[in-house]
Amino acid sequence: MKRPYNFSAGPAAIPEPVLQQAAADMLSWQGSGMGVMEMSHRGKEFMAIYAQAEADLRELLTVPSHFRILFMQGGGLAENAIVPMNLSRGLVTDFVVTGSWSFKSYTEAGKYCTAHVAATSSPECTTLPSPTTWQLSQSPSYVHICTNETIHGVEVHELPDLKTLGCDTPLVIDFSSHVASRPVDWSRVGLAFGGAQKNLGPAGLTLVIVREDLLGHALRECPSAFDYKIVADNQSMYNTPPTWAIYVAGLTFQWLKAQTEGNQTGVAAMNIRNKAKAQLLYDYIDSSQLYVNKVAHDCRSRMNVPFFLRDESRNEAFLSGAKENGLLQLKGHKSVGGMRASIYNAMPLAGVQALVDYMRKFEAAS
User: Fold this and answer.
1) 295 contacts: CB under 8 Å, gap ≥ 6
2) Residue 275 is a catalytic residue
């Protein structure tokens, strides 16, 4: 049976080979007689799964040796509290607010430190403030940005170099919705976090990649299970980790490593592929008389493409027809309306082409 194309913003589509492998291993992983969900997280079977997943992720994202990879729980929302509990030292933290997720990060951090808005693109959130316009605090404990705003469809295509802004402080990035879709310049990052449920696997796993010198500064009130140093010292096994989600993410890492585009492999290959998918969709929207994308061209997301019908009375008809054509989860977030196509790593170019073909036919019939 041909599966429909799933454009959900998250939990999102998982590569079909990954789902097939997970299904094959469901009752007995590699002949062990146990499914992964039944294993002890400290047993040799799961520790082998964990070690391979961590090594594959470090290779995929070219994570330097002086960064620790933590597999945690709670999603990006929990990290909005966990990051300031670990890095703020109760002092001032700076936030660049460019959409719903960075605003949530800012408001949550205010419970644990003094949170300051250094720049914002609200209320429209269709552009990005240039780093040269940021009003940074004198000595912030860190600067936080969301590098891809899932709801508003805004993406930071080049990470800022805080040193050029006269700020020698860690940059924290929420890369939940575009992790592994493009390379990361780790020389400009102190900590990166993200939920796995968009590009890396099922919901339940949260990824934190943190520079070693930032460990060991948690507030006294920080729960032990959320103290990055304790988690790092215990190889993410201080409490029972999300074993199934780690396993499926590990399969996704292996799938990513096997992807090729021209002479590129892994994340570099996905970077090429994602640019092509996004350009195909944006080019059609820009040429259309029915659809419109309101985001400035220089900061359009390659992962989440919001668009609106100029005649919004046709919205329900559009969604109904899309479903009939095997195109699922295209309704925009309730806070902004319209439509949204999330075209993460698992979405093939053929899926985006199918969407464009349908959009063209719907416009012709309108």
Assistant:
1) 126, 127, 152, 153, 154, 301, 306
2) no
Average pLDDT, the chain: 96
Q: Which is catalytic among the residues 29, 94, 101, 331?
A: 101
Domain extent at residue 348 = 261-365
Domain identity same for 153 and 246: yes
User: 307 with 240, same domain?
Assistant: no
Token look-up 């454009």 returns 7
Spot the catalytic one: 25, 29, 94, 198: 198
Residue 288's identity, in one-letter code, is S
Pinpoint the alpha helices (H) of 179-314.
Answer: 228-233, 243-258, 266-287
Residues 149 and 285 in one domain: no
**How many CB atoms are closer than 10 A to CB 286?**
11
Contact call for residues 231 and 70 (beta carbons, < 8 A) = yes
pLDDT band at 1 (very low <50, low <70, confident <90, very high): low
198 is catalytic: yes
Contact 134, 81 (CB under 8 A): no
Confidence of residue 9 (pLDDT cuts 50, 70, 90): very high
Per the structure, the count of domains in the chain is 2
Q: Is 174 tagged catalytic?
A: yes
Q: The domain that contains 278 carries what CATH number?
A: 3.90.1150.10
Under a CB-based contact definition with an 8 Å cutoff, are residues 216 and 229 in contact? yes
- Are residues 203 and 287 both part of a single domain? no
* Same-domain pairing of 238 and 320: no
Point out the catalytic residue in the list 25, 56, 174, 227: 174
Instruction: Determine, yes or no, domain membership for 139.
Output: yes
The domain boundary residue, chosen from 229, 257, 285:
257
CA distance 31 to 290: 55
Task: Give the model confidence (pLDDT) of 95-145 as tens digits.
Answer: 999 999 999 999 999 999 999 999 999 888 999 999 999 999 999 999 999
Please tell me whether the peptide bond between 84 and the residue prior to it is cis, using omega within 30 degrees of 0. no
DSSP assignment string, 97-165: E-SHHHHHHHHHHTTTSEEEEEEE-TTT--S---GGG----SS-S-EEEESEETTTTEE-SS---GGGG
Q: Which two tokens stand for residue 258?
A: 């096997």
The last residue of a domain, from among 257, 291, 307: 257
